[in-house]
Amino acid sequence: MLKILRIKTTGKVEAKDITDEVQKAIKGVEARLLNIYTPHTTCGLVINEDADPDVMKDIIEGLERLAPKNYPYKHREGNADAHIKSTITGCSLLIPVSEGRLMLGQWQGIFLMEFDGPRERKVYLTFI
Fold it and tell me: How open is the CA angle 15-49-20, to the nearest 5 degrees?
């Protein structure tokens, strides 16, 4: 079974918490594993702390230090840094599911990492 989430981002770069949307989408679905995948080359998916928003701000700043926007990249579209950051974060996650609940840790959330927004992004949920 496949479900598609459409996530709208509002900033050029942002960490959008999509945990609640994902949890709602799995309600009533019999599954042990959930694969989450985004088919875009300038955003990513991560699991990290959702209790303190400064954690995601630090992660975004750290990624900016690794792949700065103003470096003289060869890619002509001007978003090479977004492609690099997407490669670092990855485009898929595999999460255990038990009794209709995501088996995330107490402080964990699922984030769509936008590196070239604002845009509407697709997130595919495949139930296993």
Answer: 65
Quick check: 125 and 35 in contact, CB under 8 A?
yes
Answer yes or no: are the C-beta atoms of 128 and 16 closer than 8 Å: no
- pTM for the full predicted model: 0.96
Instruction: Work out how many domains the chain is built from and give that number.
Output: 1
Give SS3 for 53: helix
Angle at 123 between CA 67 and CA 90, to 5 degrees: 30
Q: Which domain holds residue 12?
A: 2-127
Confidence tier at 67 by pLDDT (50, 70, 90): very high
Q: CA–CA distance from 41 to each of 12, 24, 29, 60, 128 (Å)?
A: 14, 26, 29, 17, 25
Q: How confident is the model at residue 46 (pLDDT cuts 50, 70, 90)?
A: very high
